[in-house]
Amino acid sequence: MTTGEMVATIFKYGGISAAILVGLYAILLGLLATSTFQTHVVYLHKIQMTWFKDLTVPESFGFMRNQVTPFFLESSDGEKLYAWHILPVELYRRHEAALLEEPVGIVSDITSRHSFKLLRDDPNSRLILHFHGAAGTVGSGYRVPNYRALSAGQPGKIHVLTFDYRGFGKSTGTPSEDGMMLDAHAVVDWAMNIAGIPPNRILIFAQSMGTAVSVAISNYFALRSPPVVFAGAVLVAPFIDAATLASSYRLAGTIPLLSPIARFPVLFNYLQHFLRDKWSTKDRIAQYIRTNEANGEKYRMTLIHAEDDYDVPWCHTTTLFWHAINATTPVGISYDELEERKNESKQDFGAAGSVMEWHTEYGIIREEILKTGLHDVIMGNPVITIAVMRIFQALDASFTC
């Protein structure tokens, strides 16, 4: 075969390969326009990542016997949401004998359990409502170390309630934006009306997809009359909205979803019309801040992101931080002006990252950009423990170890 023939062959088969890739990508785009395929790609709820462990046996995830009480919550539209009530380790130690006497497994009436009474009957207890990210379950990946980090600052007082959204793990139903809002409402209702914990003793913690859910539900309650505002929120690896995330997201870290299309704004804007669940955190976070400022309600919000997060780029947090800050003033502030303010007043901790706080008469908005932590590992790091304690102690200086 001559050199010319070899070149022609390469171009021929290269062209065929390119045509196949283009065809496959076109099929992917077509599938993404369907509701069912979108649901699986956006939420990844069928990927459990529990490595064949039984979710009804929390001990297999490293907990002590009956440190976790598994039970079901019910949403207003009848879905069953699988949940864990997790006792902080020091509180468990103090009551170990009584807890060991109780049967293990899913309980039908959590109010009868000793662990629930320790939460409900202690006026100094605190409760963290945990909103996990896409894929997996309450027991997946770095979520278990995350629970420990959340309560580590006060291991005798800080309880955690974590749950699986509809369609995840053992929860019934299929995930959607409207449905997951009902799930979040059911969790808040349980915390305030069943466990009897007032909002100022409830902290919202969320990561990744969970940040969109938690900001949405926090905004919903802030808009009520009278408004309901929780002690604060810690948002790890949040994203601006579903469309913006999709424009840079790669499935399994390799397969681009809409990033090639995002280079053509007109086409990308057209495709956004087919996106069923918008999850516009940028709009909701702005409305939440604006509402609290107008109502004179005290609020605290911490946004945390690692620069080496390859799932959700950390620029999402800097943009959300700007949307939040912009909502605190009637005249607003430009993104560039905020960046100038950061250069003047942010704290630079070198390899540990940087911190910027924005104070108003009613609220504190804090941005922490870490150098390392990835998307999930960060959840078990001390930065999470300190963020939780900072918010609780801001409301009650006596809340210490």
Automatic annotation (TrEMBL):
Q: Which Pfam families match?
A: Abhydrolase_6
Q: Which residues form the AB hydrolase-1 domain?
A: 128-286
Q: Does the record's keyword annotation contain Transmembrane?
A: yes
Transmembrane regions listed in the UniProt entry: 20-43
Superkingdom classification of source: Eukaryota
Question: What GO MF annotations does this protein's record show?
Answer: hydrolase activity
| Keywords (A to Z) from UniProt | Hydrolase, Membrane, Transmembrane, Transmembrane helix
Q: Does the keyword Membrane apply?
A: yes
Q: What is this protein called?
A: Alpha/beta-hydrolase
Species this chain originates from: Hyaloscypha hepaticicola
